[in-house]
Write a structure and sequence with these properties.
Layout (H helix, E strand, L loop, with lengths): L8 E6 L4 E12 L2 E4 L2 E5 L2 E5 L6 E6 L28 E5 L4 E6 L42 E2 L2 E2 L24 H4 L10 E6 L2 E6 L5 E3 L16 H10 L13 H5 L25 E6 L6 E6 L4 E6 L9 E2 L3
Parallel strand pairs: 2-8
Antiparallel strand pairs: 1-2, 2-3, 4-5, 5-7, 6-8, 9-10, 11-12, 12-13, 13-17, 14-15, 15-16
């Protein structure tokens, strides 16, 4: 007898022309401990066994015989229809063949490819409750821009076509203007998500992959309107430690403009944006004017317009990180 089999129950099955001995072995594998499961019946090609824990996943296995022969094959559980069986019923009955073993584990032990002909996966974000672990590389910057994988919308666009988002304008003032045609790609839904680290709040923009400080006025020494020269704003953001991150920086002009919705005003930000603590004034970008290096570009998010001013002027700052 196979010394690996801790418990054997012998049953018999009959057909019209022959009688064959059957062996059913049921083991419960949980945290590397083996426990015997009760076999209630084996008849008409079906085996019924006890199910004391509906959270376990059972696998029905078989082998040709139970001879104590090292050359004999191991138990075989490759039949997909008899893998990862889970039920809330106190007794589970499954169709089997002649000689099988049923094992159980706390987690599914087998994987298979999803088939579009047989499987349906709902859209949305998936929690790691039924996964062994979540791939830490499943991040927007590792997924092609606009592609959605399990609710994660990609922002990667290196060496591929850049996607221009819509301006947000929906009112038309003349035929075939921006408000009528509305060219450009739509953003992901939801576009923004808010996260909190202790009391620090940040906003991730799933359109660009950028992370912004949710309420810039809540930052230390940043509660006064128009308090920063350009060079001081660059230095402040570079030295900022916030929400567990130390790689903050002053955004460039394109990054600032990515937040502007030209269909809105006062403030010209996307509908349902989560930002707060913004001044109705100008915000520095890290981008310098090419024709005059003493000037730097800035925006006024209240109305959505862009301009340039002397780097010695006093304006506001809005730290950003990510987007590499």
């Amino acid at each position: 007898m196979n010394p690996k089999a801790p418990s054997i129950t012998h049953l018999k099955a009959h057909s019209k022309t022959w009688i064959r001995s059957l062996v059913i072995f049921v083991s419960l594998l949980f945290i590397r401990c083996g426990f015997a499961q009760d076999i209630f019946s084996f008849e008409h090609g079906h085996v019924s066994f006890s199910n004391e824990n509906p959270l376990l996943y059972y696998t029905v296995e078989f082998r040709p015989d139970l001879l104590d022969d090292p050359e004999e094959p191991e138990w075989d559980g490759s039949y997909r229809g008899l893998q990862d069986i889970q039920s809330t019923n106190p007794v589970i009955t499954v169709p089997v063949g002649m000689m099988f073993r049923v094992s159980a584990s706390a987690m599914p032990q087998h994987t298979r490819m999803l088939s579009p002909a047989h499987d349906t996966v709902a859209a949305g974000y998936y929690e790691p409750t039924l996964l062994r672990e979540v791939d830490e590389d499943l991040q927007p910057h590792n997924i092609l821009w606009g592609v959605d994988i399990f609710g994660i919308t990609g922002t990667y666009s290196n060496n591929c076509t850049a996607f221009i988002p819509r301006t947000g304008q929906t009112v038309s003032y003349t035929p075939e203007d921006d408000g009528e045609i509305q060219y450009g790609t739509t953003g992901p839904t939801p576009r923004f998500t808010v996260a909190t680290n202790d009391t620090d709040e940040v906003v991730t923009d799933h359109l660009t992959g950028l992370m912004w400080v949710k309420a810039p006025r809540s930052l230390p020494d940043n509660d006064i309107v128009n308090a920063w020269t350009w060079s001081n704003a660059v230095a402040y953001c570079r030295n900022l430690e916030y929400a567990g991150h130390s790689d903050w920086r002053l955004p460039n002009i394109r990054e600032l403009l990515s937040l502007i919705d030209f269909g809105q005003t006062d403030f010209a930000l996307p509908v349902q944006h989560p930002f707060s603590g913004l001044f109705a004034s100008h915000y520095w970008s890290s981008t310098t004017r090419k024709d005059d290096p003493t000037l730097a570009w800035n925006i006024r998010p209240q109305y959505g317009f862009m301009g340039s001013n002397s780097k010695g002027n006093l304006m506001n700052l809005w730290p950003v990180r990510g987007g590499y």
